[in-house]
Amino acid sequence: MTLAASVRADFPRFWKTIEYSAEIGTGRSGGLSRLALSDADRQMRDLFVTWCRDAGLSVTIDRVGNIHARRAGRDDTLPPVLVGSHLDTQENGGRFDGIAGTLGALELVRSLNDAGHITRRPIEIVNWTNEEGARFSPPMTASGCFAGAYEVDWVHARQDDDGITFGEALRSIGYLGDAAPGGRAIDSYFELHIEQGPVLDAGNVQVGVVTHGFRSHGYLVEFHGETAHTGPWPMERRRNALIAAARLLVAVDDIGWEYAQTGGKGTGARLVAWPNKAGILSDWAQAVCDVRHDDPATAAIMASRVEAAIDAAAARTGCTATTLDRWDWGGKIFDDALVAEIRRTASHLGYSHRDLPSQAGHDAYFLARICPTAMIFTPCRGGITHNNNENAGRADLEPGLNVLLHSVVARADLEDDSIS
Amino acid sequence: MTLAASVRADFPRFWKTIEYSAEIGTGRSGGLSRLALSDADRQMRDLFVTWCRDAGLSVTIDRVGNIHARRAGRDDTLPPVLVGSHLDTQENGGRFDGIAGTLGALELVRSLNDAGHITRRPIEIVNWTNEEGARFSPPMTASGCFAGAYEVDWVHARQDDDGITFGEALRSIGYLGDAAPGGRAIDSYFELHIEQGPVLDAGNVQVGVVTHGFRSHGYLVEFHGETAHTGPWPMERRRNALIAAARLLVAVDDIGWEYAQTGGKGTGARLVAWPNKAGILSDWAQAVCDVRHDDPATAAIMASRVEAAIDAAAARTGCTATTLDRWDWGGKIFDDALVAEIRRTASHLGYSHRDLPSQAGHDAYFLARICPTAMIFTPCRGGITHNNNENAGRADLEPGLNVLLHSVVARADLEDDSIS
After folding, report:
1. How far is CA A33 from CA A72, A174, A352, B285, in A?
2. Residue B237 belongs to some domain of the structure
C-alpha cells in the first residue's frame, strides 16, 4: 500500500485556504498584520482547527498554544511525523510566510484523505505559536518550548509592548491548552516555507532543498542611564540610554556591512527608550539586534564583535548594559537522509531544484534538536518578505507542495523502524 | 507711590503652593510627571486659576490654552507687564522647572496685594501651555503662538504619541479658550526659572542674571525605508529607517562631544520607528535632535553638520529623509535695560549674583520677539533637572523671588512711556 506516484495536491483547494487566511488580520494592501495571540490570530486558529476537524484529525492544544492535529497511522503506536509551520505574521507581513507551510500541511492531509491512503506512522500537522517574535521576544518561542529549550512558565511570562504576558494572551484567545509541549518521541519534522530570499525566483528554480541554516546570533540588550536636560547638562555627565542603544544598532549594522560580500548580515531591528521625548535624556532603552553568516566560525566572530559593541556602547555613554536575552540558531542541523529524500522526490516529480541554506530562523531549527528535520523552500517573487508585497503564485507554490506530500508520505510509510 | 524697598515675598506662602503642585501628577519619588494637557495638568491649572481669582486677578484663557491672570494697573490702558512660566513637566520631571516661575508670579501679585501697591502698568501673570514639548512637539508651542511664530490651527493640529491632537486635548481638559493668543501690545516679560545647570549652585551664587541664551538648533526628522526580513535580505538592498534614525542620533551625539570643551551640546532625544520589531526592518522612523552652543556662529556650524548628518544617514541606509520641523532659539535676545535692572535689584537687595547665559529653551525666548524680556535664574541642587531628583530650597529660591518682585514692580511703575 503505497501512495501512487501520480497523486498531486489539490492546488485550487490549497489556494482557497490561502485566500481565506489573507482576509484575517489584513494589514497594508495585499499583506497581513496578524500578530501572535491577537484576535486575528484567534480567528485564524479557529478556522484552522475547524478545517483540521473536518479533515478527520484529532486536535490537541498544548500549554503554549501550539495546535497539533493528528491523523492516525496504520501503526498508531509509532512516533508521528510532524509537518507544520506558523500562522502568525509580522506587523507588516505577507500572506505566505509560515502560512503556506501550515496550510500546505493541511492540504497534504486532505490529499491523503482523497487518495484513501493511510500512512504507516501517524502524521501530525502543527501550527507553532509566535514564530515571528513580532509580539513576544524571542521568536520561535513555542517550538523552542516544544523542543525543550524554554520552560512553559518562562514562555508564559514573556511580555508584549503593552505588558500583556504570553500566558494572559493565550488565555484571552482561548488557546491555553492542557497538553504538555513536547517531551515525547517524534519521528521527524517537515516544514514547507517560502524562501524569503531571491535565489530560487532569480534562478527560475521550482524547489529549494534546504541543506542547513545560516548561523545566527541574536541579542536583547537593556541599557540604564539617567534622565537630565538636553540643554545645560554637560556632555561629560550625560548617561543617555537612547544613544547607547543607537550606538549598538549602528555598530551591528556596520558589522553586517563588513561581512556583506560573503553574504553576512547584521541587523538592528528594534529600539525602545524612556522617556524618549524632546528635551530630556532617556534613562532606559532596549535594543534587539542580530548577526548571521553561512559560515558558523565567521558568525561566531561577528557575535563576539556584537558583544564588544554592547560594552563599547555602554562605556561611551556612561550607561550600564545588560544582555537580557541571547539566542542563536542554524548550522548543519538538518537530517541528511530527509534532505536526500526531498532532493530525490523533487527530481522524481520532474521539478527543477537546488540546494540552498536558510538565512531566516524557522521553527524547524528547534525541531531539529529533537528529531530528524528537513525544510522545503518555494520561490517567492523577488525574495520580498516581511512586507505586504510578499507574493507567490501557483507556479511558485505547487511544486513545493507536491514535494512535501510525497516526501512526508515516503517517510511516514518507511518500514524501517531503526531510523527513529 | 513706590513699593517700599523692605517689602519681601512671603516665602512660606510661596512654598505652600510649590507643595500643593508637587502632589499633582506625581511621578517617580520626589518628582512630577505632569504632561501638558493631561488630567494632572488640568487639576494644576484649575488650582492655579482658583488662586489667581482669589488674588483678585481676572483670568483669560486663550485659544492655545495659555492662562493670563491680570492685575489692573493705575493706568490700565498701558500695555501690561507679563510675568510667568509653565506648569507642565517632563515625563520624569521635577517640582520646580517652570513651576517656580509660574507660582513665583502668583506670589508677586499676592505680595503686592499685601502691600496694597497698585503698579502703574497692569501686570499679567501667565501659564504657558506645553513648554516642555514632552507631549507635543515642538516645545514652547503656545508661547511661540502668542509671539506670532505659530498659527493657532497649526498648534491645534500637533499630535501626541497616541494621535491625540493639541486641540482635542485642550478641549477635553476644558482649556480651549476664546481669546486670540498675542496680537496686542505687551510692555515687557519677566520669567523666573531654576538654572537647570550647575553654575550658581557650585559657585554659591544666589541670583543668576540671564544675559542671553545659548544658540540652539533643533530638528524633527522623518525617514522612510522599506520593511524586509532581517535574515535573507541583502545588506545592499536594505532600507532600514530605524538604522537611519540611529545613525543620525549617534552623529549628533558625536557633534556634541566635538564641541564639549567649549560647552557645546549635541543631543539625540527621541527615536520612534515602525514596525520596530524583532525580525523585520523598519520602514519608518522619526528622530528628534538638537545642538547648542554659547557662540551663535559655532552653533550654526554645528547645525550645518547636523543637516549633513541627516543626508548622510539617509544615503547610508537607502532611506529618504524629510525634516518635518526645525526650530532655533537663543542668542542676544534679552533686553539690556531689563537685564541691568535685575542686576541692580539683586545688588540692592544684597544678594550675590552673576551673569550667565541660559542653555535651555524657555518661553521667554519667544516673548523676546515681541517685547523687552529678561530672565532671573535661581540655583538648583547640583544643576539636576528633568529628573525626579531636581531640588531647590528656600536659600535657593527666595533671593530670585524677591528680585523678581522688585524688578517687575520697578518696570511696571516706570513713568517713562517712551520705552514701550
Report:
1. 34, 20, 33, 19
2. yes
Q: How far is A19 from chain B (nearest CA, A)?
A: 22
| Per-residue pLDDT at A51 exceeds 90 | yes
User: Which residue range(s) make up the domain with A122?
Assistant: 11-196+360-419
Reference B375, options B139, B228, B191; nearest CA is B191
Whether residue B244 lies inside any domain: the answer is yes
Please tell me the distance from the alpha carbon of residue B326 to that of residue A173, in angstroms, as a whole number.
45
Mean pLDDT of chain A, nearest integer: 96
Cα–Cα dist A51/A53, whole Å: 6
C-alpha cell at B197: 545647570
A125/A21 same-domain check? yes
Q: Do A387 and B226 touch (CB under 8 A)?
A: yes
Distance separating alpha carbons of residues B39 and B22, to the nearest angstrom: 15
* ipTM of this complex: 0.92
Of A275, A309, A329, which marks where a domain is finished? A329
> What CATH number is given to the structural domain containing B248?
3.30.70.360
- Read off the pLDDT of residues A168-183 as tens digits, 9 standing for 90 and up: 999 999 999 999 999 9
| Residues of chain B found within 8 Å of residue A234, distances taken between Cβ atoms | 198, 260, 263, 265
Q: What proportions of chain B, in percent to the nearest 5, are helix, strand and coil?
A: 40, 25, 40
Residue B1 has pLDDT above 80, yes or no: no
List the single residue in B with minimal CA-CA distance to A229.
B386
**Torsion-angle region of residue B67: left (phi > 0), alpha (psi -120 to 50) or beta?**
beta
Name the CA radius of gyration of chain B, rounded: 22
Instruction: Output the pLDDT for position B137.
Output: 85
B308: Cβ contacts below 8 Å, ≥ 6 apart: none
The answer to whether residue A205 is domain-embedded is no
pTM of the shown model: 0.92
Give contacts of B359 with chain A, Cβ < 8 Å: 229, 231-232
Rounded to a whole number of angstroms, the distance from the CA of A223 to the nearest CA of chain B is 15
Within a domain: residue B100?
yes
Answer yes or no: is pLDDT of A416 > 90.
Answer: no
Within its chain, how far is the Cα of A154 from the centroid? 19
Nearest to A220 by CA among B278, B217, B255: B278
CATH of the domain at B127: 3.40.630.10
Mean pLDDT over residues A374-402, rounded?
97
State the amino acid at position B255 in one-letter form: I
Instruction: With CB atoms and an 8 Å threshold, state whether A243 touches B232.
Output: no
Under an 8 A CB cutoff, do B139 and A278 touch?
A: yes
Number of domains in chain A: 2
Q: List chain A residues with CB under 8 Å of B235.
A: 256-257, 260, 264-266
A137, A229, A359: residue with CB nearest B278 = A137
Q: Which of B123, B119, B124, B141 is nearest to B132 (CA)?
A: B141
